[in-house]
Queue: 2 jobs
Job 1
Amino acid sequence: MSHHDVPQKVSQAVERVTEKHGGTVTGMLGVAFRDLRTQEEFYLNGDTAFPAASVFKIFLLAELFRQAEAGKFSLSDRIPLEDSEKSPGSGVLKELGEGLNPTIRDCATLMMILSDNTATDKLFNLVGRENIKKNVLDALGLTRTRVDWGCRRLIARYCDQPETADADADSESERSFRDSDLYLCRTDENDQTSPADTARFLALLAENRLVSERASRDMLHIMSRCQTNSRIPRHLPRGLRIAHKTGTLDRVANDVGIVYTERGSYVLALFYNGNAADEEEYARNEKGRIGDDLLAELSRDIYLCAVGGGGGRP
């Protein structure tokens, strides 16, 4: 197989996997693949906006490192934990005692490898929403991407819950979010992105051209330690380096990152929005049952395309 056949093979792999899941996947699926050796690409719904969920944290990370390089603060500076700052959902800081004094780098690490929402909101408030927009989204031409909220507000809006640290972002609401404007990214404010925007961002990061070479390498090191590995890494060979970030909301499953293989590296951005599904698929996807399996299988088969393999598991 010629290496230049890879995008066509990726397209065929995506079609096979989606057809396997109930004949067709009716929920909105987004895929971006970029071979970093040849710059060849494949997109499915590449310019469609998807709920970013915790994927928005990659854009926050970039602005954090930009401001650190500009001398606004040092990543070794400490920011004390206060009970009033604790945010609901994923992470460990909300479970720890007031007065803990992590460094900014500690918070960045917790944000990326455990998706810690309290650490994220401390950093979001530190760098500022408008700076993320101006210096990352607008500067890179990420026209489908918005980072309007930290985690506390995102969870309150998306999960229809109060903005308190005691709220359980994983609990089920009696309300259905199917076809809601928020989940379909039709609101004036949101945390959203597109496969194409994310792939552009990640390609710059992989090429050490985001902020600076040193900052890019540092961000990639943190992302390579992600501990949520049920999607892109799930079926890939153990020990493979994967710098990635997941995002999860009700019936929403995302995973975006860079996969480093023996035949070169590629960017992969996977988004599944089950709130755009038909009623039958929406019901089947209770507790996100479809998203993890779908994205893991897509990642496996795309990996096989990228390294020149056939069907089956690595």
Job 2
Amino acid sequence: MTGTAPQLAHVLTAAADAARATPGVAFLRPGLADVVRGAAARRLPAGAGSAVTAWGAARTRVAGVRAERTPGTGGWQLRVHLAVRRGHQALAVTRAVRAAVTSAVAAAVTEAGEPEPPIAVTVTVTDIT
């Protein structure tokens, strides 16, 4: 994977799905840009549905997950921001999310026919709900 938009979207989607499926994760935390983009999409006039479709088709952004290629090594650096459900230990959830995201991204990359690159995942708990 060279980091093109479809490949980035595939990695982001795999990481987000793995994080959401982890027990104890309440939701992935959107960044400010995601909140503003969502508000703008809701304010589009009725005939501007194609703009929303065009944004959704690109889908190189997933709320709560950021990914970029590591210069030189070709690996991936991912940052996941999430909220933990009340009653779950934040440390245990972050460890589980990191393991799940690492496995999911490795599978997504090898599925695309590339050897497994180094993958670094940072998990930040922004809230407990």
